[in-house]
UniProtKB/TrEMBL annotation:
<comment type="subunit">
    <text>Hexamer formed by 3 homodimers.</text>
</comment>
<feature type="binding site">
    <location>
        <position position="166"/>
    </location>
    <ligand>
        <name>substrate</name>
    </ligand>
</feature>
<feature type="binding site">
    <location>
        <begin position="240"/>
        <end position="242"/>
    </location>
    <ligand>
        <name>substrate</name>
    </ligand>
</feature>
<dbReference type="InterPro" id="IPR002638">
    <property type="entry name" value="Quinolinate_PRibosylTrfase_C"/>
</dbReference>
<dbReference type="InterPro" id="IPR004393">
    <property type="entry name" value="NadC"/>
</dbReference>
<feature type="domain" description="Quinolinate phosphoribosyl transferase N-terminal">
    <location>
        <begin position="24"/>
        <end position="109"/>
    </location>
</feature>
<dbReference type="GO" id="GO:0034213">
    <property type="term" value="P:quinolinate catabolic process"/>
</dbReference>
<keyword id="KW-0662">Pyridine nucleotide biosynthesis</keyword>
<dbReference type="InterPro" id="IPR013785">
    <property type="entry name" value="Aldolase_TIM"/>
</dbReference>
<dbReference type="GO" id="GO:0005737">
    <property type="term" value="C:cytoplasm"/>
</dbReference>
<dbReference type="GO" id="GO:0009435">
    <property type="term" value="P:NAD+ biosynthetic process"/>
</dbReference>
<feature type="binding site">
    <location>
        <position position="217"/>
    </location>
    <ligand>
        <name>substrate</name>
    </ligand>
</feature>
<comment type="similarity">
    <text>Belongs to the NadC/ModD family.</text>
</comment>
<keyword id="KW-0808">Transferase</keyword>
<dbReference type="InterPro" id="IPR022412">
    <property type="entry name" value="Quinolinate_PRibosylTrfase_N"/>
</dbReference>
<dbReference type="InterPro" id="IPR037128">
    <property type="entry name" value="Quinolinate_PRibosylTase_N_sf"/>
</dbReference>
<feature type="binding site">
    <location>
        <begin position="261"/>
        <end position="263"/>
    </location>
    <ligand>
        <name>substrate</name>
    </ligand>
</feature>
């Protein structure tokens, strides 16, 4: 996937939001229209880089276009005051694209950095850190890309490419067993069937119904241990809900296969990056 090409639509929206109809009125007034310039993008703190191709596309689309040369690959860690990219071209394009490019970079680097920290905690125990559909509108492909750059695993992209039978599906269908049966009849083995369980009784029902994956929803570690004993290897397992960066270590050594975390996309702190004209 070319993430820069994927992002073109939201990049155009972001540039239009910032430039409006009249463009960068400060640069138009203060700078020569023919001026060319060079700039560097600098990390002000340790972080994992994500979003270079997106920033490159921003500068390409801003004004008359400027070139972006990444010095650090997405997925690599950087130190404070490290130059991660160079930008060159019409000064008006550099300044027009500056904030939009940094908004993308700071947000996506923040996601990648947080994900990498959590992966470091979980990986020694063989547990995968996964994202969710709790993403900012229009930003899902980019935010999931950043998770992958941080070493995390992408869960389904949307409702169209994976089956998860959640509480409202169970209520609407009339129970776990009937919901699983209907999905299996509809899709056969095309999709693994994942079932959300909030109680041990629901875990038992999911296993009887033939679920491929059981998601433990907002279960404390003690209950998850009991649930794992009930499953006894008959299905893959995932924890979702109630897990934070602070208590993650209490969940990784229980024996689950994966932990899905919404906050790594919707609440990751932005990394501190800046653009400086040389």
């Amino acid at each position: 996937m070319d993430i820069g090409e994927t992002a073109i639509g939201i990049i155009r929206l972001a540039l239009a939001e910032d430039l409006g109809v009249d463009g960068d009125i400060t640069t138009v007034a203060a700078c020569s229209p023919d001026a060319r310039g060079k700039a560097v993008i600098v990390s002000r703190e340790p972080c994992v880089i994500a979003g270079g191709p997106i920033a490159a596309k921003v500068f390409e689309l801003a004004g008359d276009g400027a070139s972006y040369r990444a010095l650090v690959a997405d997925g690599d860690a950087v130190s404070p005051d490290e130059i991660i990219a160079r930008v060159e071209g019409p000064l008006s394009a550099i300044l027009a694209g500056e904030r939009t490019a940094l908004n993308f970079l700071c947000h996506l680097c923040g996601i990648a950095t947080l994900t990498a920290r959590l992966v470091d905690i979980a990986k020694p125990h063989g547990v995968k850190i996964m994202d969710t559909r709790k993403t900012n509108p229009g930003m899902r492909p980019l935010e999931k890309y950043a998770v992958a750059m941080g070493g995390g695993i992408n869960h389904r992209q949307g409702l169209f490419d994976g089956v998860i039978i959640k509480d409202n599906h169970i209520a609407a269908a009339g129970g776990i067993e009937i919901a699983v049966r209907r999905v299996r009849n509809a899709y056969g083995d095309s999709f693994p069937i994942e079932v959300e369980a909030t109680t041990l009784d629901e875990v038992r029902e999911a296993i009887r119904a033939g679920a491929d994956i059981v998601m433990f929803d907002n279960m404390p570690p003690e209950m998850i241990r009991e649930a794992l004993a009930l499953i006894s290897g008959k299905a893959r397992t995932e924890v979702s809900g109630g897990v934070t960066g602070e208590n993650l270590s209490s969940y990784v050594d229980i024996g689950v296969d994966a932990i899905s975390l919404g906050f790594i996309t919707h609440s990751a702190p932005a990394s501190n990056l800046s653009l400086e004209i040389e």
